[in-house]
Amino acid sequence: MNLLRSARLPLALLAGLLPLAGATAQTPPPVPRLPSVLRDARYCELVAIHVTLDGLKADVFNTLGFDDCPAAKWEALTRRELFRQFDTLAVVMNGPRHFIMDGIVASGETKTGEVITVGGITMAKRAEVALSLHQATGPAYTEQTIERDTTYRFDAGKPTFRLTAPDGGVYVMQSYAQIVDPALTYADLPGLGPRLKLPAGWSYAAVTPTQDLLLVASGKAIVIQDELKNTYQKVTAP
C-alpha cells in the first residue's frame, strides 16, 4: 500500500473524554445521505493503520453521504490534524476517488460506523481491513480481504469495468482514483486497458450487463487495486 501521508502518531490525550457535571448534551453526528446520482460521485477516504496482536488492521473512513470531499479542504489536511484524530501507526490519504456503482445498500457496522470530522471534512467508518505485511507493502493486483456488509448495484445497460485473472476470477471496478493520475476521468475508463501493466494472463474489459449486477459482501469482500489505485471487488458465488 502506498502511504501518501503517514507518520507514527502519539498517544491520544484523555482530556475531554469524560463529560463535566451539568454539561449540555453533545450535538448528534450528521446522518449521511447518498447523492441522487452515485455513479462518478467524488469521495475521499482516510485509512488508519494499527498494529494489533493479530497483525496489521486498517480502519477505513470515507466521505460518502456527507459531501464530495472539497479539494481545498482535502489538500489542506496536515499531519498535525491527522495526529490529533488518530492514535495509530500510519494514516493513508486515499483520494480523491469516484464511485462506479449506481447504488449501495449497507448494513451492520458498515451502515452505522463512527462519524468523525477532520479538517472540516466529515466522514464515517465504512470498513475494517486485516492486512498482512505483504498486502500492506505488496504490488498492485494483490488481493485484500475487507470486513464490510454491502451490496453494490450496477444498473443494466451501463458499463462496468472488469479485470479477469488467469484462473477466471473476475473483479469489477468499484471506484477509480485520481491519486496517481489526477487527470483520470470516467470517460477514460473504457479504454484504460492498454495503460495498465497487467500481470501475465490478466485482461481488462468494459462489459455492459443486460441485467442489474449485484456485488454482495456479507461480512467480507475481496478487493484488489491496479497500479493507478483503481479498486475492484471480486465477483463471488452467491
Which key terms come to mind for this protein?
single chain, 238 residues, mainly beta, eight-stranded antiparallel beta barrel, three-stranded antiparallel β-sheet, 4 helices, 14 strands, globular, disordered N terminus
Description:
This protein has an eight-stranded antiparallel barrel. The protein has a three-stranded antiparallel β-sheet with strand order 4-8-12. The longest helix is centred in the middle third of the chain and has 7 residues, at 79-85. The protein is globular, with a radius of gyration of 18 Å. It has four helices and 14 strands. The two termini are 29 Å apart. It is mostly beta strands and 238 residues long. It has one domain.
Summarize the structure.
The chain is mainly beta. 9% of the residues lie in helices and 38% in strands.
By DSSP, the count of extended strands is 14
Number of helices: 4
Arithmetic mean of pLDDT? 82
Low-confidence stretches: 1-25
How would you sum up the global shape? globular
Strand content: 35-45%
Can you tell me the number of structural domains? 1
Estimated structural class: mainly beta
Span of the ends, CA to CA: 29 Å
Q: SSE string, helix = H, strand = E?
A: EEHHEEHEEHEEEEEEEE
Please summarize the sheet with the most strands: 8 strands, antiparallel, barrel
Could you estimate the helical fraction of the residues in percent? under 10%
* Strand order, sheet with most strands: 1-2-6-7-13-14-10-3
The Rg value, from CA coordinates, equals: 18 Å
